[in-house]
Design brief:
CATH class: Alpha Beta
Radius of gyration: 16 Å
Number of helices: 6
Shape: globular
CATH superfamily: Flavodoxin domain
Order of helices and strands: EHEEEHHEHEEHEH
CATH topology: Rossmann fold
Number of strands: 8
Low-confidence stretches: none
Mean pLDDT: 87
Distance between the termini: 19 Å
Structural class: alpha/beta
Number of domains: 1
Strand content: 15-25%
Helix content: 40-55%
């Protein structure tokens, strides 16, 4: 079983979630490649794909969104999970889920998850820090690590019980 974890991350917070998912899958025997969306040229050889993106104003980053749209046919032929991170206020805003749910539907994905993100003052530019202050978002790492690891284990369990993929020429 071989999986691809591909994540668009501007400041590294969402990338950290992707790495944790990959490590959790590896610990349970899945071979995993971690590749940024811009460098994914084919999905051949992957039995499953996990795609993630940081959210900015409720939108996925371009490279992850473009990968899903470009590879829609290939993604429909294998199990796909999608996730996004970004909100840190604890408010479950439907706007933050909207694009991820649409992308999941587009590829007939198994699941979409939205995780809280991280706001590290040192990694943000002046404009970004100003916006964070203006909207009152709390600084710090709000990523729910036990939930993320549990989700990765549920992916592994789904892969363990899934029928072997059928090669489509």
């Amino acid at each position: 079983m071989k999986a691809l974890v591909t994540v668009s991350s501007k400041h590294g917070g969402t990338e950290g979630i992707g790495r944790t998912i990959a490590e959790t899958l590896r610990a349970s025997g899945v071979e995993v490649d971690v590749v940024v969306p811009e460098r994914v040229t084919t999905l051949d050889g992957y039995d499953a794909v996990i795609v993630g993106s940081a959210l900015y104003l409720g939108r996925w980053m371009g490279p992850a969104r473009e990968l899903v749209r470009r590879e829609v046919d290939a993604l429909r032929r294998r199990p796909v999970w999608l996730f996004a991170s970004g909100p840190v206020t604890g408010v479950d805003d439907p706007a933050d889920r909207s694009e991820g749910l649409k992308l999941r539907e587009l590829v007939d994905g198994r699941e979409f998850r939205l995780f809280a993100g991280v706001l590290d003052r040192q990694r943000l530019g002046l404009l970004e820090r100003t916006v964070v202050r203006a909207i009152g978002s709390p600084w710090g790492d709000h990523r729910p690590w036990p939930e993320i690891e549990g989700w990765a284990r549920s992916i592994r369990e789904a892969l363990r019980t899934a029928p072997e993929p059928v090669s489509v020429p």
